[in-house]
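Q: Got a minute? One more chain.
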Amino acid sequence: MAPRANWKGFLKVAELTCPVALYTAASTADRIAFHTLNRETGHRVNRQFIDSDTGKPVEREDQVKGYEIGANDYIVLEPDEVAAAVPESDKTMAVEAFISYDEIDHIYFDKPYYLTPSDRHGQEAFELIREGLRAEKVAALAQTVLFRRVRTLLIRAEDSGLIATTLNFDYGVRSAKDAFSDIPEMKIKGEMLDLAKHIIETKYGTFDPSKYDDRYEEALAELVKAKLEGKAIPARKQQKTDKVVDLMQALRASAGMGKKPAAAKKAKAEPVRRKAS
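A: Always. Here it is, folded:
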């Protein structure tokens, strides 16, 4: 079954326009999902919004948005007022600039999408944009209304299509300086730094996503399977954690330079027995 597009519109570069479709590139839809049940009856339970003071259920038509300005003090926003704040969409993904792909810190990356031509009549324009990005080794910065918000996207060439990654807003990215402010400054040098470099060099490799498993998802699948088959659920083995006592010792061990095993002690020489005269 062909995937369903999340969004359809037009990719525009200056006066060049082509119809495109946006598809989810990374999804959690295949994860194991659970329902909340009533233990006594085995029936699914439904959520209800309850008034915090009266304890009575509040029907959907009586629910409104509220912005807290103080303790139990809110500004009420009516549904039509909230709807009026949603930006109008002209279904155009307009490219504003071309930049080096490495120019943006990855901390600003949000969600990846596949961008493809949605109409065969726009195929040539799409391929022209894609090959232009590939030839110049750049990415495009574009803006459009996605899911009720104006979003900025980083668009780059990938195989026969494009990948569009939504970017986090600046106000949503926390300062690294604040996060790292309590880390003391230390100068690492000498043998310690050389050992660290050696460990990195010996373990240098490539990223193969197929080698990394979701162990939690696998454990849930095994749990469900055991329940279905009526098998006993094996107890989890407690993992042993070794305490690092000496940093240099740990580095040497990691680099395969641990202390050599002590040589076996020589047998104690027996006393020389003199012959009787």
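A: The two ends are 106 Å apart (CA to CA).
Q: Perfect, thanks.
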